[in-house]
Amino acid sequence: MKRYATVVIVGAGPAGLATSACLNRLSIPNIVLEREDCNGSLWKKKTYERLNLHLPKHLCQLPHMPFPLNEPTFVSKNGFIEYLDSYASTFEVYPMYNRTVENAWFEKEGSMGHVVVRNKVTGCTEEYVGENLVVATGENSQGFIPNFTGLEEFKGEGIHSSEYESGKCFTDKDVLVVGCGNSGMEIAYDLSSWDARTSIVVRSPVHVFTKEMVRFGMRLLKYLPCNSVDNTMVMLSKFKYGELTGYGLERPTRGPFYLKKITGRSPVIDVGTIDKIKDGSIQDGGSLFNEDGMPKPGNKVSGKGKMVSIVLDFPRMDCLEFQMMPKI
Questions:
Q1: How far are the Cα atoms of 19, 66, 79, 96, 286 from residue 135, in angstroms, in the given order?
Q2: Backbone phi, then psi, for 110, in 5-degree steps?
Q3: 7, 23 in Cβ contact below 8 A?
């Protein structure tokens, strides 16, 4: 079976929905292919309960549709999921679900593009053909767990952050969170709030700010050069949190917005984790990683009883980049 459209879009996350919506507004035929059974599957299936957007809603909205006025400034996970569903309905975006891409190619320059998928419901192969192909699968669709020596012998439970839902299952258990990105820090806070004995392993230097600081910094970027804003942000962080080296947290030598632009890494937006680290509710788990963020040779994962290792990947794409999405 072959189906034709001007544009074939792979992925029905926020970027895929936004691309299709903009094309629909211009009456450009398009087809959206999604391997899961819903749009926004990462938000619906692989996020923890307490998650909120870390940026104000006006910076996270998709093209041509603001958030409702009654939504809070920092939208909840469920609020964002409702927004995605409403967005798809408003702009008549109807993805072809349960389609796993097996191959995609252009025959030659200027020719039609072909996308071959496997329909997971029927088991049949389908082919979609278009003048243009948009890959909107994101950078966070696959979890990554590094190869630790001893991990296969570990007697506790080891999960990736995408499998984490809530700390209520870990009360009175020992939990090691590996990684101090936004997910790692917020998961550590959630675990500690549910009375888990929580430790966190820091992979590399990291900037830490409040939501309000980041919001202020993004406003400054409209008027001041990046270097000036970075210096201001670091000063505010030092004023708020003091020196964090003694708690196992080092600041990078380059500024937060410079690093975001060059490496894609976002600063950590603190939800209360730093206070818990300072008062000892969350312990420093030590460093298992080298400066490149990979396990150091000779380190071994081990644990007794109910120890749980939560191993995190460190995606580059997050809500800080929603504001960069072009409007058509």
A1: 10, 25, 26, 15, 39
A2: 85, 0
A3: yes
pTM: 0.79
Q: Which residues contact 303 (CB under 8 A, 6 or more apart)?
A: 154, 155, 156, 174, 176, 309
Q: What Å distances lie between residue 50 and 166, 172, 201, CA to CA? A: 8, 20, 21
Q: Give the CA count within 13 Å in the CB-facing half-sphere of 156.
A: 19
- Tell me the three-class secondary structure of 32-63, residue by residue: EECCCCCCCHHHHHCCCCCCECCCCHHHHCCC
Q: How many CB atoms are closer than 10 A to CB 142? A: 11
Task: Using alpha carbons, select from 136, 187, 146, 127 the residue that is nearest to residue 163.
Answer: 187
Q: Any idea of the CA torsion for 22, 113, 131, 108, to the nearest 10 degrees?
A: 140
Rounded Cα–Cα distance for residues 199 and 158 (Å): 14
Angle between helices 77-90 and 14-25 (to 10 degrees): 30
The whole-angstrom separation of Cα 224 and Cα 253 is 20
Q: What tens digit of pLDDT does each residue of 191-222 get?
A: 999 999 999 988 789 999 999 999 999 999 99
115 contacts 10 by C-beta, under 8 angstroms: yes
